[in-house]
Amino acid sequence: MNKIAHIGIAVSSLDETIPFYRDSLGLSFEGIEEVPSEHVRVAFFKIGESAIELLEPLNEESAIAKYIKKKGEGIHHIALDVDNIQERLNHLKEQGIPLIHEQPKTGAHNSQVAFLHPKAAQGVLYELCEQEQEDH
User: Which domains does the chain have, with CATH numbers?
Assistant: First the structure.
């Protein structure tokens, strides 16, 4: 594990929530991206080496919509930056750690992501995140 990549926060409306993080807290607003595979719009705020991601559901099929309906707005997950995500997933599976995804899928910024089941960590949802390698 390299660092905490981001903390994902489920929100009902980016338009209503962004001003608090940008204007009140003074975090650096990095923009918004739609992630069709997760049915969400994501607003990004940089804080040191990590980020806060606000997650707004695009429709009722979104896991974020279901989360908000069940638990309300708030912290949804903690993302850990890793190298070789598939190797990490294989290792966790061998240890009997319950996974939501056994294979990574494409997330925001073309990263590869996979979620561990919250049963693995006393109810905390962790995301493994391997950033797209930049060509030099």
Answer: 3-130 (3.10.180.10)
